[in-house]
Design brief:
6-stranded mixed beta sheet; single chain; alpha/beta; 5-stranded antiparallel beta sheet; Rossmann fold; 14 strands
Length: about 280
């Protein structure tokens, strides 16, 4: 499968943090969710992909090119967790400026997004709500016809209705099987709703890169009474509660058969992430 992002052994060292040999891919026609706790390395990874930081090791391919290639950047739409347009600008001012920056600018599409999102063309940015600002940023990112959309916490702080509108737009964006979305968010329910693949990063290292449906269909939480022994090879991560031990397992059906006194429940993406971050890994891992 062809990729719009290919990252191999990406490394960046800071005095108090190291992004350590990070590898993953973002295939064409897919949405890849990037999850992890605050400080795990999500934003650092995105800045390296965009060539905003100098990498200390590894390689990055952005739309098949080096990320330093200006031609690659013109085909990437980027939305961060804040709208950085001048507050005195209106959406029409944004159009006037950006249409002169990008080699391609689709006026009809841009104004269509404004209408779809209910954004007044002549209202100043400073008067818009946070949700409206993010919708403006996404409209501008899509108006120059990118092949790849990168979002870093773009739905953070938005109400459920606004988030749902943006998620629907992302699903529309990938329908041609050529476009891709790389979506970093701590709101795992958003990732769970739309992602095809999920990448979990923790303390600067990739924990897994997996199909979302595999995670949700097969992974599970095995909840055992105190005193139940679960073999180390049968779980990924364990954690203790006041009355029981809980285990994250890769195959909840098999775990449920092997340990009939335990309860094998489905695991959400948030459950899986929290187990990896807070639990005690099996020695088999």
């Amino acid at each position: 499968m062809e990729n719009n992002i290919l990252v191999r052994d990406l490394t960046k060292r800071f005095p108090d943090f190291t992004l350590d040999r990070v590898s993953f891919q973002v295939p064409k026609g897919r949405i890849v969710g990037f999850i992890g706790e605050n400080g795990a390395g999500k934003s650092t990874t995105i800045n390296l992909i965009l060539n905003e930081l100098k990498r200390d090791g590894g390689t990055v391919e952005l739309l098949g090119r080096d990320p330093a290639d200006p031609a690659a950047r013109t085909e990437v739409g980027v939305v961060f967790d804040a709208c950085n347009f001048p507050e005195v600008f209106t959406p029409l001012d944004v159009e006037r400026v950006l249409s002169g920056v990008y080699p391609v600018w689709d006026v009809e599409a841009y104004r269509g997004y404004l209408k779809r999102f209910g954004l007044p063309e002549k209202k100043r940015v400073k008067t818009l709500s946070k949700g409206m600002k993010m919708k403006l940023a996404i409209s501008a990112a899509l108006a120059h016809k990118p092949k790849l959309l990168i979002l870093d916490e773009a739905t953070a702080g938005l109400d459920p209705v606004a988030r749902d509108e943006i998620l629907d737009l992302l699903l529309d964006f990938i329908q041609d099987e050529e476009h891709s979305v790389f979506f970093s968010s701590h709101i795992t329910s958003d990732i769970q709703k739309i992602a095809d693949y999920v990448v979990l990063i923790h303390q600067g290292q990739i924990v897994f890169e997996e199909e979302k449906d595999v995670l949700l269909d097969r992974y599970g939480i095995l909840r055992c009474p105190k005193g139940t022994e679960v073999e180390r090879g049968d779980y990924i991560v364990r954690r203790e509660t006041g009355v029981s031990a809980e285990y994250l397992v890769r195959d909840r059906a098999a775990a449920g058969r092997k340990y009939p006194k335990a309860v094998a429940d489905a695991a959400s993406l948030e459950d899986i992430m929290l187990f990896y971050i807070k639990g005690e890994a099996s020695c088999e891992e």
